[in-house]
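Hi C.,

You asked whether I'd gotten around to modeling the 394-residue construct. I have! Everything is below, sequence then structure, no commentary in between.
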Amino acid sequence: MDAPVIDIDPFGDEFRRDPQPAGERLQEAGPVVYLESHGIRGMARFAEVHAVLRDHDALNSSGGAGLANFKKDKPWRPPSLLLEADPPDHTRVRRIVSRIMSPRVIESLRPEFERRADELAARVAARGEFDGVAELAQAYPLLVFPDAVGLGPDGRENLIRYGSMVFNSFGPPSELFRQAMRDAAPVQRWIAEHTLRTALSPDGPGARLYDAADRGEITEDEAALLVRSLLSAGVDTTAHALAWALHTFATHPAEWAETRADPTLVRPAFEEVMRLASPVLTMFRTTTREVTVAGTTIPADEKVLLFIAAANRDPREWPDPHRFDIHRQAAHHLSFGTGIHACVGAALARLEAETLFTALTRHVRTLELAGPPRPRPNNSLNALAELPLRAIPG
C-alpha cells in the first residue's frame, strides 16, 4: 500500500457528529489515504480534491456520486443526467440547462425572491423566537424556487424528503439509509408525477426543458430527469446552506452587526459560510484507468472519496481556516464543486441566500441561539434538523 492506512469511518456516528478532527487527521496523514473501513482511497487536502473534481477523464462521475459503483450495481433511482454523467452525454444536457438557467434568467427572478424574502424575514422577526430550519432555511427555498420552475403549491415538502433519500444513498446500505427510504414509494411517485410536462406551468424553466425535447435536443424522459435535477439543486442542499448561515451569524454577533451595517457583505459572508460550514461533507469519483495522484497509484474502476468539507478548511489553502471571516475571498471553495460538474444550482443558491439575508439585515437587529441545534444525520451532508433562534427586530 503506497498510501497511509487510516481507520476513520466517513459514514460512522463519530465522523458525522464532528467531522473536523477527522478531516485534520486525514490531511496530516498525507495527500492520499487508504480508508480500511471501506477499502477505498480518500483525499482531504484542497489541492488534490480540487484537481480530482476537474479531472473528469481519469476520475469520472458516471460511476455514481456515492459508494456504490453504478458500473457494477444498479442504482435505486435513475442517475442524475448532470451529477452522474460524463461527456459527451453530460455536455449535451448541461448545455441545454445552462441556456435555460442563464444569468439573465436567474436575475429575472430577483424581484419576486426579494418580495418573498422580505415578507418571511418580517414575519419571523415579529415572532421573536422561531426554528431557523423549518421556518426560514427550508421555508424560503420551498416558497420561491418551485414557483420559479413552474411547480404547483402542493406537496413541496417531498423535495426535502427526496433529497434525504438521495444523499443518504451515497453511503453504505446502513440503518440511516433504510430510515430515509422508509415509506419512499409516495415520495418517488410525487417526484415522478410533478416532473412531467402536465404538472408544470407553461412559462417556467421546467417547460423550457420540454420545449428542448420538442425540438429533439433531448428526450421526454430526459426532460423529466432534468426537471428533477433543477428542483433538488434549488431546494435541498440550499436549505442546509441557509441553515448553517443562520447558525454562523447567530454565533458571531459582531459579524452580523457588520453585515447589517453594510449589506453588500451578505454575498462574501455566504461564500465564507459555504467554506466554513460546508453542507456537503463528501463526494465520490470513480477511476476510469490506473491513476497516480501525489505519488499514489489507484487502480482502474476504483472508488475515491473526496472530503469536500475538510478541503474547505485545509490550512495549506486557507489562512486561519477555522475562523469565520466575512472579508475573506472564499468564492473558490469546493462546496459547489468545480469543473464541468460544478453545481448547476449554485447561482440560484447564491440568489436565495443574498435575497433572504439582505432582508434579514433590514428586519433583525440581533440574532442568537435560543437553544442547542439538533443535527440531522446524513451519510453525505452536514445538516441541521432544528435550529432554535431568537431575534430582536431592527
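If it helps when you're writing up: The chain has one domain: 5-393.

Thanks,
B.
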